[in-house]
Amino acid sequence: VSLHGEIMEQPSVARRLLERGREPIAAMARALRERPIDYLVIAARGSSDHAAIYAQYLFGVRHRLPVALAAPSIRSLYGVEPRFERALVIGISQSGASPDVVGIVQAARGQGAPTIAVTNDASSPLAEAAEFVLEVQAGAERSIAATKTYTAQLLGLALLSAALLDDPQDERAIDALPDALATALDVDAAARQVALRQATMTRCIVLGRGFEYATAREWALKLKELTAVVADPYSAADFQHGPIALVEPGFPVLAVVPSGAAAEDLLALLARLRAEQGADVLAISDLPDTLGLGEALLPSPAGVPEWLQPIVTIVPAQLHAYHLTLARGRDPEAPRNLSKVTLTR
Amino acid sequence: VSLHGEIMEQPSVARRLLERGREPIAAMARALRERPIDYLVIAARGSSDHAAIYAQYLFGVRHRLPVALAAPSIRSLYGVEPRFERALVIGISQSGASPDVVGIVQAARGQGAPTIAVTNDASSPLAEAAEFVLEVQAGAERSIAATKTYTAQLLGLALLSAALLDDPQDERAIDALPDALATALDVDAAARQVALRQATMTRCIVLGRGFEYATAREWALKLKELTAVVADPYSAADFQHGPIALVEPGFPVLAVVPSGAAAEDLLALLARLRAEQGADVLAISDLPDTLGLGEALLPSPAGVPEWLQPIVTIVPAQLHAYHLTLARGRDPEAPRNLSKVTLTR
Questions:
Q1: Number of H helices, E strands in chain A
Q2: Is pTM beyond 0.80 here?
């Protein structure tokens, strides 16, 4: 199994999680409703941290819950155990092995806070530490760069949100995701063409906003770990508070522009970056080509509600990063200096 | 007044804040002790967001309080008002004008949560929106790149933490900061020499850990807005979950390595990056030169406790960014595409 194979597996991984995960997640939601929860704390590293950013918008927008992304080093470096009074504490880790993430969940459970492990390994230390386990059922992931486990983490979190709200319309939207993921894969050839043109790129900005800030972060990480392009991700708002100064004529700006609340501002910013600063824009979007980007638009499937879009918009980004890896003469199975499981304190 | 002048002003700005700020901040702390607070929510953009990251460690390590960095677009884009039950909500903004930050504080105050405006303008919309105002008293900041207002924000937050804990040892450590800031400025000529050697740099990684993650973020932002170097900041832990793949022989790695709990891991990582991946390391540190960096070590003042170090370690970083701006033939007073006050929704 190769990285490309694991990217292609994502529709069937989603189908499996929908089949096997709904029951246990519904049971978890019933149990959580009995607990006093004022806010969420999420501990995660790497791609899983981008699933945490998705959760920040998911539970913020749909449940009005503030979400704190834990700084695990407060415990691991400084030996201080935060107070988790009235918090729901979630650890997200593909392997479930990272000691810093496990440590936060252990501490929270010791204080009696409800805890969830979102992991691909139901017998991992993280799964053992948590009161509840949300197993993402993605099957073994062999490539070092996370792809199918990332979309499975997002889908697992979306299922939890839907189970907590219990709205049949949400369930129907989620049921349509495996087909949308299959459609998203159709961009493979177009992503390869774009990558061939970008083979000499050394740096770029990646923009997203709202729900799609998570996708911008994850796209940038794929580019860094696989292609060694220095890809700096920003929310469109933070970008205007300083880093916009980077963009000179020809500077590559990658953007995730879904339809929905975030579209208007981001489209206006991209148009300005092109017209006034000469940015070289590549976008992933389900919108018709309002920017006139032509081949520099990688389409994502239409009809996916905004809160679920990050589950499908990352697919063109994964394919883009994969093809750029090849175009730059690198091995997608062997990114430099990395191993599959990183054990940070 | 120039950017360099404002950097040099920082000892006197700190002295003024200590003189004028202690009383009102002590009164604020007394009032806050009467309120039920389980966690913090902080809204900020740009450099102020890095003050928020400092606060995440400050209140996490010293007060055991989880800190959520607000995603203001949950309110501004999606029209959803988070519930701020049992939260202390802090907005940080130099100008106090950014509508998205003001919006979060307004919403929280409307719900009856305690709110603080950390701002340089006590008559700004942010100051008006908040129940409490922590005026950082930095004087008018004319340069577009924030320097003295950033260190003043950090010092203001440190004063609040000290007032809440009421430990005379803390007060003594804070009293020593203006002199430490003056010592930090001595690095000016050395920073210029380093900058001259790095004039052709186009990209780099900036590493910090724990309290100094804030400094890594702020250093990277100064480089981006002033020098147009793509500077990608990471905590040393997150860096090992992917981006470490970027480092090839000669790749510039900038690091903030204070003495204290974070030092050991970060020094080991830097030694490995140099020996195995050929990284070109530049460090800011108060440690003796254990890495044998020679002129690529910018010293920060010794004797500052770890929780206060970010207030002084940013100074060599500011000077480095300033001199690199000149070395690259750019105007430090006129970064491209930026204005002093950025009004994001």
A1: 14, 10
A2: yes
